[in-house]
Structure formats: structure tokens, C-alpha cells
Amino acid sequence: MVPWLVPIALFWPLAALYLGGAAITMEGGGGVRQASGLLLHFVSYLGIYALLRAGLSGLIGPVLGGVVVPIVLTSILLPVLAKLAFGIAGVRLSSVPGSAAE
Fold this sequence. Notes:
This protein is mainly α. The chain contains four helices and two strands, in the order H-E-H-H-H-E. The longest helix is centred in the middle third of the chain and has 26 residues, at 31-56.
């Protein structure tokens, strides 16, 4: 249970920093679509974590391959997962015009 507590607790601040702090805008969809996009983002984050944890725990070890490396890799993929999840929900994430992210 503890290996799942870390990614669940880490997702919400990371998602808040990316979705609220990055120079991106959400286009299309109302509140229901945006909320469903956020939930799909959460599910995809945990799904990728589970796949990486299953694949790496036997190779690297239970602590490093079972928790640390999958969390780091999944957190790096957070922007890609956000675009995919919100895209499935019908919301488009795009960079703000004139920002450094463009």
C-alpha cells in the first residue's frame, strides 16, 4: 500500500504546478470536460506508474525500481500525459502566445 501512497500524494501538487503554473491555456469544454480530463490524467499517471513499477522492480530492486525510478519517470511524462488525457476529454492544452514555452 505504501508504494501507491507516494505517487497518489505526489500527483496532485505536480499537476497543480503544471496546469496552474505553466504558460498553458485550456481551450474547449466546460467544467465537466475539464474535470474528467483531470481524472483521466490521474488515472493515466497511475497506470504508467504501475507499468513501470512492474517492469523495473525485478530489474533494479524493490525500492529503487519499485518506487523511486517509476515515480521520477512518470513525473517527467506528466505534460505528455496531460495533453493526451485532456485531449481524450475534448479539451485542448496549448501554450500561451508570446511565452517562452512557444
